[in-house]
Write a structure and sequence with these properties.
- The strands form two sheets. Strands 3-2-1-4-5-6 form a six-stranded parallel beta sheet.
- Helix 1 packs across helix 13.
- The protein contains 13 helices and eleven strands.
- By secondary structure, it is an alpha/beta fold.
């Protein structure tokens, strides 16, 4: 029996690529000599369109993209190489093989556009259909704007899953009410590997001896302003992976501050590993910073849009959202408390995966 993972593994998104890597490695360890673990090499067309090399925009935006094109191409190459190095891709599966769909955004209608592939509609009902820590993203599923036909599709396909778990408590409540069954909540796959396991995937990046790692997936003026204050207060440069234009907005805060345009997942892990502090609005940025015991300053995406996974992470590890005032001194992370919570949650998640394999 082989296992095939279905996720957004082709996304140019660090969390998405790392989580399919983590789940693949964990399942390979649990499965042992009984079979192999593959990543099913399917890419949703709408999701693929989210990562063009060029986006239509103003003349200034087009010029900025043209200047950054060589770096963007190198970054894509590093993403693709990371997948080739660390997971087995396949588009073929046998009649006894099992599928696990899961991870970030896989059931988010605004990304998948209701693609039934991620509901495993191509498989017969029974033990071959499974989900681990699947995510709805934001609470779209509870929106009254979601078409009734989509709710019906979720009910029709998910009711026949042999094992079904989600990442967010809000998703467990929504799907539990729909399916009339208890839905367990499990760790994001990226939390299943230890610090030592993750750093074995990292590739060194040339950096100052001490720095602040700024990670954003969308422009965030308030977070950018906070990071500049923090840089000035601590006297540390900012190394940033974030959308930006032609100018470096962090240069005035510290002359060594710069943007990293070419980082793939391996380089991203290294930047996270060696940072003194992390400033982010990303769930995966906050999750890795927490696992790596960094001083982390968390911002919500904006006042109107909250990430349920990020809110849950903040509550579970008793983290704090960043205030307007940047500190002048870093406080150490509560390492023992973080380790205890992770050990407990990993034990539950791994037991679920063992049952999925053995049943």
């Amino acid at each position: 029996m082989n296992i095939h993972l279905l996720a957004f593994h082709r996304a140019l998104h660090f969390g998405a690529v790392l989580q399919v890597t983590a789940l693949s490695h964990v399942l390979s360890r649990l499965l042992g000599s009984r079979g192999q673990v593959f990543v099913y090499d399917y890419q949703n067309p709408h999701e693929a369109a989210q990562y063009p090399l060029f986006r239509p925009g103003s003349l200034r935006e087009t010029l900025s993209q043209a200047i950054q094109l060589p770096a963007a191409c190198l970054q894509r190459a590093r993403f693709h190489q990371f997948l080739r190095d660390h997971v087995a891709l396949s588009t073929h599966f046998g009649p006894e093989d099992r599928f696990i769909v899961g991870g970030d955004q896989v059931w988010n209608p605004s990304i998948s556009q209701y693609d039934p592939t991620f509901l495993l509609q191509f498989l017969p009902d029974g033990p071959r259909k499974n989900a681990y820590a699947a995510s709805l993203g934001s609470d779209h599923f509870g929106s009254p704007r979601l078409p009734l036909s989509v709710r019906q599709d979720f009910y029709f396909y998910l009711r026949h899953f042999a094992h079904l778990s989600v990442r967010e408590k809000s998703a467990a409540l929504l799907l539990g009410d729909l399916l009339q069954r208890e839905i367990p909540v499990h760790l994001d796959p990226n939390a299943l590997l230890s610090f030592d396991e993750w750093t074995s995937f990292a590739k060194p990046v040339s950096t100052p001896s001490e720095y602040i790692f700024y990670y954003a997936v969308k422009p965030h003026p308030e977070m950018s302003a906070f990071a500049k204050k923090l840089s000035q207060n601590l006297g540390l440069p900012i190394l940033a992976i974030a959308p930006h234009g032609l100018r470096n907005p962090f240069k005035k805060a510290h002359p060594q501050s710069r943007f990293i345009h070419t980082a793939g997942p391996a380089e991203w892990l290294s930047l996270m590993q060696h940072a003194q502090a992390v400033v982010t609005h990303s769930f995966h940025g906050a999750l890795f910073a927490t696992q790596f015991k960094k001083s982390v300053f968390i911002h919500q995406i904006n006042a109107l849009e909250t990430d349920p996974a990020l809110v849950q992470l903040i509550e579970r590890f008793d983290l704090h959202e960043a205030s307007d005032q940047a500190p002048s001194k870093l406080m150490p992370a509560e390492a023992n408390a973080i380790d205890q919570i992770l050990a407990q949650e990993r034990s539950l998640s791994l037991e679920y995966l063992r049952q999925l394999i053995d049943s």
